[in-house]
Amino acid sequence: MIGRLNHVAIAVPDLDAAIAQYAGTLGANVGAPQDEPDHGVTVVFIELPNTKIELLHPLGDNSPITGYLDKNPAGGIHHICYEVDDIMAARDKLLADGARVLGTGAPKIGAHGKPVLFLHPKDFNGCLIELEQV
Amino acid sequence: MIGRLNHVAIAVPDLDAAIAQYAGTLGANVGAPQDEPDHGVTVVFIELPNTKIELLHPLGDNSPITGYLDKNPAGGIHHICYEVDDIMAARDKLLADGARVLGTGAPKIGAHGKPVLFLHPKDFNGCLIELEQV
């Protein structure tokens, strides 16, 4: 069911410092910050030859990243995103196997403009998993 | 400097359950468990079309994964591994920029039989980063 690893998302407390570090010290191809007010985040994509790193920083007063950074002030790996061909078929298979889908269970439009779902970390080895239909 | 994302490593408390979940529910291509006594881990590689997931489970009495699972009983994303062409040049650049390399600073031979280094999570947004020379 799962296909490519679309991205690894890293929550960062200081976005400018993280950009400078990935572009400078680590010599990676770092994009421009993009505000995503609907998701409460500012995102920066780092293009690696085979996948992407997504830096996440809180935007606004109700960001889902604020609580994460409160618990992990240095930042940390927030989630990993696997691609799927058919997100409704994926959801139905997951629910049939007893896994929990976060929120209402209906896909939302993610930061890339494509349908996404998040799976409960307690059902997946402590990892927050995003599924994105591509 | 950094190239491909070689793998994302996930520490798991129940290796058989994680294998069954990735092979069954998530429908991925899961390899056979490999004991790595020199590293204190049993590893399972999950081959995605563009990169790998590495499941990590403690092996023996002094596993580096035991402490992580004590703190994170459900498991979690343990580290990410970026490929580099020249690990000594990478190390020298990192040290010159003030980043800390774990251990003696000399590369070790990793679970894939190639030279690796680990970087201090506090210097990299709370992420444990492995560099592997490929």
How are the elements arranged and paired?
The structure is a homodimer of 134-residue chains.
Chain A: E1 5-11, H1 15-25, E2 29-30, E3 34-36, E4 41-47, E5 52-58, H2 64-71, E6 76-84, H3 87-96, E7 108-109, E8 115-119, E9 129-133
Parallel strand pairs in A: 1-5, 6-9
Antiparallel strand pairs in A: 1-6, 2-4, 3-4, 4-5, 7-8, 8-9
SS-based structural class of chain A? Answer: alpha+beta
Please name the CATH architecture of chain A.
Roll
> How would you name the CATH homologous superfamily of chain A?
2,3-Dihydroxybiphenyl 1,2-Dioxygenase, domain 1
Mean pLDDT figure of chain A: 96
Q: State the major sheet of chain A.
A: 9 strands, mixed
Unreliable parts of chain A = none
Q: Structurally, how many domains make up the residues of chain A?
A: 1
Quaternary: homodimer
CATH topological fold name of chain A: 2,3-Dihydroxybiphenyl 1,2-Dioxygenase, domain 1
Helix content of chain A: 10-25%
H/E topology pattern of chain A: EHEEEEHEHEEE
The pair of chains with the biggest contact is:
A-B, 40 and 40 residues
- Overall shape of chain A: globular
Overall strand count of chain A: 9
End-to-end separation of chain A: 12 Å
Indicate the radius of gyration of chain A in whole angstroms.
15 Å
Summarize the structure.
Two copies of one chain form a homodimer. The first copy, chain A, has 134 residues and is an alpha+beta fold.
